[in-house]
Each structure stands twice: as C-alpha cells, then as structure tokens.
Design a protein that fits this description.
The complex is a heterodimer of chains A (221) and B (371). Chain A is an alpha/beta fold and 221 residues long. Chain A has helices spanning 19-30, 72-80, 94-103, 114-126, 134-141, 153-165, 168-175, 179-194, 201-212; strands at residues 11-15, 37-42, 58-62, 84-89, 107-110. Chain A has a single domain (11-220), classed as 3-Layer(aba) Sandwich (Rossmann fold). In chain A, strands 2-1-3-4-5 form a five-stranded parallel sheet, with helices on both faces. In chain A, α5 crosses α6 (153-165), α7 (168-175) packs across α8 (179-194) and α8 packs antiparallel against α9 (201-212). The longest helix of chain A has 16 residues, at 179-194. Chain A is globular and about 45 Å long. Chain B is α+β, with helices and mostly antiparallel strands and 371 residues long. Chain B has a five-stranded mixed sheet with strand order 1-2-3-5-4. The chains are: A alpha/beta (221), B alpha+beta (371).
C-alpha cells in the first residue's frame, strides 16, 4: 500500500453501529487540520472491504458492532490484509486492548478519550506510526503476560506517568526530558510490542517505519 | 487415622492391643494343648513345630509396634502374612489323615486371628488372605480326606463357625473405628464453631476500635461546628468537612464485600469528590491484586487529601503491575499543599508543574510480601 502524501489526502473509513458516532467521527476527522477525508462509513465491516472504503488509508473500527463479543475476527482479517486499523471502543478493557495490538491494530482508543486522540491516532496510523493514548499506556504498564517484551525502567516510567497524567508536557517535566523524547519512548515501546505474538503486515510496517524514522536501529531488533 | 491424638487413632490402638492379646492367648491356651497331645501323629512332626514357632514369631514381632501404639508397618505385614500362610500350609499338610477340623487340627482357627492382627487396617487384603487360607485347607481335605458325609458336614460347620466369628470380629472393629472417626469429626466441627465465634467477636471489637480511631478527625469538627467555634463559611473549615466526608465514605466502603476493594474504596473517594462539585475521571489498569486493609488506607489517604485541594477537575488512576500498586491523582490544586506523610510501606510523592499537581502513593507488593 502506497503512503498517502504527507498531511493532505489522508482517507478513512468508519465502522460503527451508532449513526451518531459515525457522524461525530466523520465530523472530527474532516474538520481536522489538515482534514482527513471519510470516504465511507457504515454499521458493518463490509464498508471497509467494498467500494471506496476498500481503498481508505485507515479503518476506524468499533470493536462492539451490535453483538456482545468484540469483532476480533474482523480486526484480524483487516490487519492480515495490511489495513491500518484504529480500534475505537466503548470499553477500557486492558486484555482486549492488548489483544488488539497483538492482532495488528495500530491503536486502541476508548471512546472517552475524545477528538484529539482520535485525530492524532488516525493521522499516525496513516503513516504506519503507532499512537498510544493514556488508557492504552495503562494497559501496557499493567501487562503481566509471560510474553510481554522487556521494557527499560525509563520506558516503564514514561508509560505509567503518561497514563496517570494524560499530559506529555507533564511527563517530560517530571522526568526532565523533552516532550518529543516522551513520544520516542512511547513509539519504541510499541515497536517492542509489534515484535511479539502473531505476525501481521501492519506490525512489520510499524517496525519498518520506526527504522526509517531513526527511532530504532535495525541491528537492535 | 493412626494419630494417637484422635479418638479414631486411640480406638485403633486399643483394638490392636486386644487382638494381640487374643492371638497370644489362643496360641498358648488353645493351640499348644492339641499340638502336645497329638505330637506323635503329625507327619513330619517338625513341620508342625516349625509352623507353631513361625506363628509365635509373627505374634512376637507384631507385638513391638502394637504395644508402642503404632499401626503395623508394611515391612512387618508383608513377610508376616507370607509366613502365616506358609505355616498354614505346613500345619495342614502335617496333619494325620482325617485329622483336619478335628482335635489334632491346632492351627485352622488360629491362622485367621493372626491374619486379622496383621491385616486389620487393610480389609481387602485380609479377605484375600483368609480366603487363601480356607481354600488351601478345604482343598487339601477334598483332595486327600475320605469324603463321608458326616466328616464333610463337621468340617463345613467348623469352617463356617470359625470364619463367621472372625469376620464378625473384624466388622465390630471397623464399626468402632468408624464411630470414633465420626466423634473426631464432630469434635473438630465444634472446635471450628467455637473458633469462628471467637474470631467474629474479635473482629467486631476491632471494627469498633477502628471506627473510633478513624472518627478521630470527625468528632472535633462536629463539636466545633455545633458550638460555633468553627465557621462553615471559612474555606479551611469547608476543606476539613470535605476531607472528613470523603474519609467517612472510604471507611464505609472498607467493610463492603467486593472483588476489588482498592478500586471500590478509591471509587468511594471519587464519588465524594464529585458530590462536592469536582469533575473527576477514574482510570484503572492491571489485574486486581490483594492489598492489606492497612495499606489500602495508606494508598487512599493521599487521594482524599489531593482531591480535597483540587479546584475543578482531577484524574485519579490506579495501576497494578507485577511488582507494585500505584494510586495517583493529577489535579488543578490550589497552591502547594502540605506534603502528605508516607510510611515505610507506602511511598508518597508529589510534583507540581504549572497548574497541575501530581500526587502518587506507591506500594511495592512484592517486597512487602517477602518481609
């Protein structure tokens, strides 16, 4: 999949079973600066596979489409096809969030986290970059699974304080580092997570992008 | 079952000692007389003597653990049973023709008692060994003896009488043992009830003491408001009221039976803060871990203090990782407050940046668990 030109021209498809949420997300994305064009939206994941939706750069996917079970199968198929998915869910459930990352989602966002995080997550996903909102940082910090990657003490501290304060500025001040360094730490953590569990083209693209950005060196992996 | 401290254990010891006495008495009192009287008729006589000596030896060896009040160890039981069965075979084979189940037969009944002494705790094995003994003896009679009807009838009566009596004795021993076991169970149940009642009483006393202790800050405040030495229009008094209200809410939440008490208590503090007009968001991550009540109190104390100083909004977070539990409040506080006191268990840290104050209480669950 070709990279969209930087900034302008980014397209998205929104899958959510609530029309109001679809309309709200479309409005947030299209009124962002630069705007993100919503080419299709619908209550069923089919809109992401057919018509204009099939070519959208980013899929914004509600995990609970009507049924009680999260649509993890749909997420897996989308990620396996190399689609960049931002999961947008009602629930702040650590286990589900970690599972979504493992399946290849580029971001897990709770609906409580709002406009700024969603726009930022979609924009980052459009360029194969991860976005780690505070709730996801909490899930990563509280991860006790056996296969979790080894994080440095500084990385853990960044995760925890970003989760606690929701302010990168604050974390930077507390730890005596630049706000951009907070971002690099968060991205490096996500690169480590992209290397565990099931393979997905989206995870490989995330790692490749991090190498391109100079965040990690190829021989460190 | 074998412990002497239980009624079942004591009953086993008594039954085994009684059985030992019965075996010794039968061998000396009943079996030695026919052996001596008919000594010349056994073919060969030394086989009968050897069988008698072997049985006496088994009794003597068994007496050691029995008199010490212990169950018979397998090292005595296994060879002992083999020796008894061999003695049974030798004694039966050495009997004069037609001597089975009549006066020269000194061993038939005695063998059963020996087997009982050895195998009382192993009933299936006892049944098998007794059946082997009876089958060997009866088989020998059928194979060799003259089968006139009166002799067969007499033999049948002896076999039936002796084995029935022995099986009845075993059944009585088992019943006694089971009853003793039931008595033990009842006694244990009574002990548990008594302990439970004592614990409940203690818990109630503790709870009362704890409430009294925690109410320490509340009572002077109420007294001050009542006698008008404190003015509710003053910020400081209102602040104290807010803290006390949140502490009370937390204290009530402490006694609720919930799966995640820490989050329940933090939620109670958040709830109280929302009532006095703050906009608070609560984020929880990581699976619940058990946190002692005293530590929970220390973790939530700084939360109450920080929330009470917040102006309009706050974010409260609870994070449980592999090693630690971290409860943090980030809020727009009114200036730097008094530094909350930590404890050896819970470390409290504060940091202010711009309009924001960050307060964190941190408990290392692993280190404390090892101490």
């Amino acid at each position: 999949m070709a990279f969209p030109p930087d900034g302008a021209g980014l397209t998205a498809v929104v899958v959510d079973d609530h029309p109001a949420v679809r309309a709200g997300v479309a409005h947030w994305l299209s009124s962002a600066d630069p705007p993100i064009r919503v080419v299709a939206s619908g209550e069923d994941v089919r809109v992401a596979w057919l018509g204009e939706g099939a070519d959208a750069d980013v899929v914004v996917l509600d995990l609970h489409l009507g049924g009680p079970t999260p649509a993890l199968g749909d997420l897996r198929r989308l990620a396996a096809a190399g689609r960049r998915v931002v999961v947008y869910s009602m629930r702040a459930d650590d286990a589900t969030a970690l599972q979504c990352l493992e399946l290849g989602a580029l971001c897990y966002l709770t609906k409580a986290e709002g406009e700024d995080h969603l726009v930022e997550a979609v924009r980052a996903a459009g360029h194969d970059r991860p976005h780690t909102p505070p709730s996801l940082a909490g899930a990563l910090a509280g991860d006790r699974s056996d296969q979790r990657p080894a994080l440095s003490a500084r990385e853990v501290e960044v995760l925890v304080e970003w989760f606690q304060s929701e302010s990168k500025d604050f974390v930077a001040h507390r730890l005596g580092i630049a706000p951009t360094t907070v971002n690099s730490h968060l991205e490096r953590i996500r690169v480590k997570y992209a290397q565990i569990g099931r393979d997905a083209p989206t995870k490989a693209a995330l790692v490749a992008r991090a190498i391109q950005d100079g965040l990690v060196a190829a021989h460190d992996l | 079952m074998s412990g002497e401290s239980t009624a079942a254990g004591r009953m086993s010891v008594i039954v085994r000692v009684a059985l030992l006495a019965v075996v010794a008495a039968l061998q000396i009192g009943l079996s030695s007389a026919p052996l001596i009287t008919h000594h010349g008729e056994y073919r060969p006589a030394w086989a009968a003597d050897a069988a008698f000596a072997a049985l006496a030896l088994v009794t003597a060896v068994s007496a050691v653990p029995v008199l010490r009040g212990r169950p018979l160890p397998p090292v005595v039981v296994a060879p002992g049973t083999a020796v008894v069965l061999l003695a049974s075979a030798a004694a039966t084979l050495a009997l004069p023709p037609g001597g089975q189940f009549s006066t020269p037969d000194w061993s038939f009944g005695l063998i059963g008692w020996h087997l009982m002494l050895l195998l009382l705790d192993r009933l299936p094995l006892f049944g098998a060994a007794l059946a082997t003994h009876v089958a060997m003896t009866v088989g020998h009679v059928v194979a060799t003896g003259p089968s006139d009807r009166a002799a067969v009838g007499g033999a049948g009566i002896v076999v039936l009488g002796v084995t029935t009596f022995q099986l009845a004795a075993v059944a009585i021993a088992r019943v006694l043992h089971r009853r003793a076991g039931q008595a033990d169970e009842l006694a244990a149940q009574r002990d548990r009830l008594v302990t439970g009642a004592a614990l409940a009483e203690q818990r109630q006393l503790d709870q009362r003491a704890r409430f009294a202790g925690q109410l320490g800050a509340t009572l002077p405040l109420l007294a001050g408001l009542a006698d008008r030495t404190l003015d509710p229009r003053e910020d400081d008094v209102r602040h104290r009221c807010a803290v006390v209200a949140a502490q009370l809410r937390r204290l009530f939440a402490e006694n609720d039976e919930v799966p995640d008490p820490l989050v329940h208590e933090v939620s109670a503090c958040v709830d109280a803060a929302e009532r006095w007009g703050l906009s608070v968001s609560l984020a929880v991550s990581g699976d619940a871990v058990p946190v002692p009540t005293a530590v929970r109190r220390e973790l939530t104390g700084p939360v109450v203090a920080a929330l009470a100083r917040a102006r309009s909004r706050a974010r409260v977070s609870v994070l449980r990782t592999e090693e630690e539990v971290r409860v943090a409040v980030v809020c727009d506080a009114e200036g730097p407050g008094p530094r909350p006191a930590g404890s050896p268990e819970v470390e409290v840290t504060c940091h202010a940046h711009g309009q924001q104050t960050w307060t964190e209480a941190r408990w290392r669950s692993h280190r404390t668990a090892q101490d």
